[in-house]
Structures are given as structure tokens and as C-alpha cells.
Amino acid sequence: MPVVTTEKHQNIMVIISNNPPVNALGAAVRQGLVDGINAALSDDEIEAVVIRCEGRTFFAGADITEFGKPMQGPNLGEVIDRMEASDKPVVAAIHGTALGGGCEVALACHYRVAVPSAEM
């Protein structure tokens, strides 16, 4: 099962990360985010994008299993550039924590919504 999936809800594209235990921003997640944004941008019916995570937290930073290994693209900067350049609004739906790269992803979105207990 892919770690990032998309769902269309009328004119909204929802990009969903499910990479337990903390939705770490590994290569597959980064690629899934770029693919999801690209799918939304290429679909004329889509007017906005929501990024959310399954499990106990929003993205909690880098994938420590990738430390010390050659970097696989896209890197986080490329993901963020793609989100920021989107001509369709991108919304981060934050719960749990948004740490490190997760905070960067949230800040790269045009808008952020969070549960009261969320931490950044």
C-alpha cells in the first residue's frame, strides 16, 4: 500500500500520508506529496488541496532510517517549492505535532488548520 494516497471530494483534492509511526518525510512520502500536488494542478475540477496525515501526528520530521544514505529525490526543498508555487490553495490539516520538516511543510501551505492540541 502506498504511504501517500489521494481522494477527490467534489472540487477538493485530499492528500493523505499514512507512514507510521510518525509520518516521517521519507523519499516515498516526499514523492507522494509532489505527485498529489501535480495531480491536483492538472485536474481542472480541483480548486483546492488539503494535506492531512493518518495516525497520531502530522509529519514529525525526517525519516531517520534514511540518515547516512544517499539522498533520494525529491528533496524537501523541492516539495516545498511545488506547494508554494501552486496556483490552487494548499491547506495543512494539523494534528499531533508538526516537527522539523513537518513544520516546514505546514508553513509552506497557503493555509493551516489545526486541532487545539496540535503543536508546532
Can you tag this structure with a few keywords?
3 helices, five-stranded mixed beta sheet, alpha/beta, globular, 120 residues, 2-enoyl-CoA Hydratase, Chain A, domain 1
Give your account of this protein's structure.
The chain has one domain: 2-enoyl-CoA Hydratase, Chain A, domain 1, CATH 3.90.226.10. 28% of the residues lie in helices and 22% in strands. The protein is built from 3 helices and 5 strands; from the N terminus they run ββαβαβαβ. A 5-stranded mixed sheet has the order 1-2-3-4-5, with helices on one face. The longest helix is centred in the N-terminal third of the chain and has 16 residues, at 27-42. The protein is globular, with a radius of gyration of 13 Å.
User: What fold name stands as the CATH topology?
Assistant: 2-enoyl-CoA Hydratase, Chain A, domain 1
Contiguous runs where pLDDT drops below 50 for at least 5 residues: none
Number of domains: 1
> What would CATH call the class?
Alpha Beta
Can you write the helix and strand succession as a string? EEHEHEHE
Proper CATH architecture:
Alpha-Beta Complex
Helix content: 25-40%
Tell me the CATH superfamily: 2-enoyl-CoA Hydratase, Chain A, domain 1
Beta-strand content estimate: 15-25%
Mass-distribution shape: globular
Largest sheet: 5 strands, mixed
Note the total helix count.
3
**Could you tell me the number of beta strands?**
5
Work out the radius of gyration. 13 Å
Distance N to C terminus:
28 Å
The side-by-side strand order for the widest beta sheet comes to 1-2-3-4-5
Tell me, rounded to a whole number, the average pLDDT: 95
